[in-house]
Amino acid sequence: MIRLSVLYPVTEGATFDHDYYASSHVPLAVKAWGLEGADIDKGVNGPYVAAVHFTFDSMEAMGAALGAPGTAEVMADVPNYTTIQPVMQTSEIVA
Amino acid sequence: MIRLSVLYPVTEGATFDHDYYASSHVPLAVKAWGLEGADIDKGVNGPYVAAVHFTFDSMEAMGAALGAPGTAEVMADVPNYTTIQPVMQTSEIVA
To answer: How confident is the model over B29-40, as pLDDT tens digits?
Structure first.
């Protein structure tokens, strides 16, 4: 199993609409990529103001999902909740 | 619910023993803090070589766990698998 974490660094002068992110943006991504859900984080302490963790069966499945036509719509929606450039982390889920 | 993510940045010249981490260190932390388990990541792409995500019922529960005597043993075990200084992120789990 593969975890794709999208991490939004705390950024001077930038805003992040947590409500829109959880109620609209992440559901859009979940639908576009055919997932059952995602884990959403609202930062309390640390370098990130928000994050989301998606789980895929394999690197191939992740590649296929991100290559789907719906991804363009997901990316075009980002300016609706933040100007922060996210950090992407792909990991193998060990346990 | 609170997620405590411990993220190990890719660091020039540093090593990380993923086997020891998953089989010994994280179980030690899980036991010390009275948790049911944790999610362990082995980095594939991105800024982190490894990560772990612990879940607590509340900030108070997290504080109580980290303040328990067993935490000293957990911290003393870190040099057994890496010299990397981890990044700590505490987040509220939104969904």
So the answer is: 999 999 999 999
Task: For residue A89, list chain B residues with Cβ-Cβ distance below 8 A.
Answer: 41, 43, 45-48, 51
pTM of the predicted model as reported, rounded to 2 decimal places: 0.94
Q: Which residues of A21-51 are buried (b: 16+ CB within 10 A; e: fewer)?
A: bbeebbeebbebbeeeebbbbbbbebebbbb
Partner residue opposite A94 with nearest CB, options B40, B88, B89: B40
- pLDDT tens for A7-61 read 999 999 999 999 999 999 999 999 999 999 999 999 999 999 999 999 999 999 9
- Those residues of chain B whose CB sits closer than 8 Å to some CB in chain A are 2-3, 5, 18, 22, 26, 37-48, 50-51, 53, 59, 87-95
Looking up tokens 């794709």 gives A4
CB contact under 8 A, B42 and A18: no
What's the CA gap between A68 and B40, in Å, rounded? 28
Which residue in this structure is represented by tokens 């909740």?
A81
